[in-house]
Amino acid sequence: MDKTPIDAPALLVVDDDVDLCDMLTEFFQQRSYVVHTAAWGDDALKIAADEPLNLIIIDIHLPDINGYDLCRMFRANRRTADTPIIFLTERRERDDKLHGLELGVVDYVTKPFDVEELLLRARNAIHRATQAPPVHPITDLPDRSALDERLAALLTVNEAWSALLVTISGLDKLREMSGFVAADEVLRAVALILRQATREGDFLAHLDAEALVLLTQPDRLAAVKSKVVTRLNMSIDHFYHADHTTDGDSEVLKFAIGALNAPTMRYPNTDALIRALTDAAEPLAT
């Protein structure tokens, strides 16, 4: 009778060494893990498409594809985009390890290895992946660190993407005039508008305290932008009260919208990508 816990973590070991796969399967199963194995990269992709995975362990040398390319494929697939990956390899060169880390590999274990050490590394990788990312206290959306991680991942794969930026200027002034509650309500409302525009696979996070970024697919960008602009225009009147004015300016709050629809390889790093998105922002026409 299978005594594996229902919530047991699931591993995928991708290695053409049958003896090694058998050893790791027995070792991890004895410690209440679900273990899948594949000797070919193509088989690994099929397993990942059908089975929920908490960790993928990949040997760089495979019969049909190298581990780097397989890692790119996992990262390009929404189902495994955030699944932690550990490389098993005989390589010890610094450049090889850096190349793996650039692809989003969370750890790098050189053969021959201590299986107990691999267990600890696997546990740590799964634990880190299951921890909730830091979130903004008002909107409960992921913070800048989570956005940077997602953008960095986009830069490592040749995957189409689009981004929508919404910025709110004047929240600090609104807090001074009407208190924290009024400003927090505006931020929550804008976050809700963006949330309602998302679909499965989209990613919404804070760029900073007054800016939100929605990552989506290129074929949805125009419709998402139109929906967000429409909802913001419908809501602006509700953001204001009689005291929300300053000398020379009838409105404290200013909104801007930026859209970016471009191949990731144009940008050498996340900072350049963020600059391009910020430069694309234009004032909301009301």
Integer average pLDDT: 84
CATH architecture of the largest domain: 2-Layer Sandwich
The CATH homologous superfamily of the largest domain is called: Reverse transcriptase/Diguanylate cyclase domain
CATH-derived topology of the largest domain:
Alpha-Beta Plaits
Rg, rounded, reads: 23 Å
Shape field? elongated
Strand content: 15-25%
Number of distinct beta strands: 10
Low-confidence stretches: 242-249
H/E topology pattern: EHEHEHEHEHHEHHEEHEHE
Q: Compute the number of structural domains.
A: 2
Intertermini distance: 66 Å
Helix content: 40-55%
Question: How would a textbook summarize the main sheet?
Answer: 5 strands, parallel
**CATH uppermost class of the largest domain:** Alpha Beta
Number of helices: 10
Q: Which structural class do you get from the secondary structure elements?
A: alpha/beta
Strand order of the largest sheet: 2-1-3-4-5
